[in-house]
Amino acid sequence: MTPIKNFCSIPSIKKTIKNTALAVVVAGTMSLYSCGGGEQEYVSETKVELTQGLVTTIEEVEKDKFKIADETVVEKKEDARIIAQYLDGQRDTFTLDEARLIEADSPRGSSMRGAFLGGVMGYYFGRSLSSPINSSSYKNNAAYQKSQTKTASSLKSTASRTTVRKPVNSTKGYGSGRSTRSYGG
User: Fold this and answer.
1) By the 8 A CB rule, do 68 and 137 touch?
2) Which residues pair with 42 in a beta bridge?
């Protein structure tokens, strides 16, 4: 390669060439660091959404203790219900949205929570479809077996699945949410 001093004898051209080369190297290095090396890694995640509904009947077996008596699949997710039968003979029916509100605001609702979250209905409240249902949430073994073999498998097989790609580490770079500020002490 021809040295710069032999390339041109005019000092201003030598200086311009050196400064331009330096600027290109600095800009290239900065772009590699700011882009995380130019390659972004992604991870695929499958999202599962239940498309059918479920009617869950829970019975109060002791004061404020509920067990699942029956679970039946219905065609539409909007038709999902929880039917609660109390020891005193009362009976209530809740939609999924009403059940979320009641279990958060009512002492009776919080005692029902363990029953329907442990069964197939728990899938509607955020439990993973890969996690098993809890046999202790059921009134008897027949109700548990029906839910495990028929109800849960029907809901899982008709669920819609979509795969999305997400960056592996989305906390790098500007606006990552990390702060270097320290408060107190």
Assistant:
1) yes
2) 167
Burial class (CB in 10 A: 0-12, 13-18, 19+), 181: exposed
Query: 131-137 contacts: CB < 8 A, separation 24 or more?
Result: 137/67, 137/68
The model scores a pTM over 0.90: no
Q: Residue ranges of the alpha helices (H) in the chain? A: 4-7, 11-34, 96-105, 107-118, 141-146, 152-158
Rounded Cα–Cα distance for residues 143 and 68 (Å): 7
- Residue range 34-92, pLDDT digits in tens: 555 556 788 888 888 888 999 999 999 999 899 999 999 999 999 999 999 999 999 99
Distances from the Cα of 154 to the Cαs of 55, 61, 159, in angstroms? 13, 28, 9
> In this structure, are residues 81 and 93 in contact, taking their beta carbons and an 8 Å threshold?
yes
**165: CB partners within 8 A, 6+ apart:** 42, 43, 44, 45
DSSP for 52-74? SEEEEEEEEEETTEEEEEEEEEE
Cα gap 81→66, rounded to integer Å: 16
- How many Cβ atoms sit within 10 Å of the Cβ of residue 109? 18
Nearest to residue 118, comparing CAs of 63, 160, 56? Answer: 56
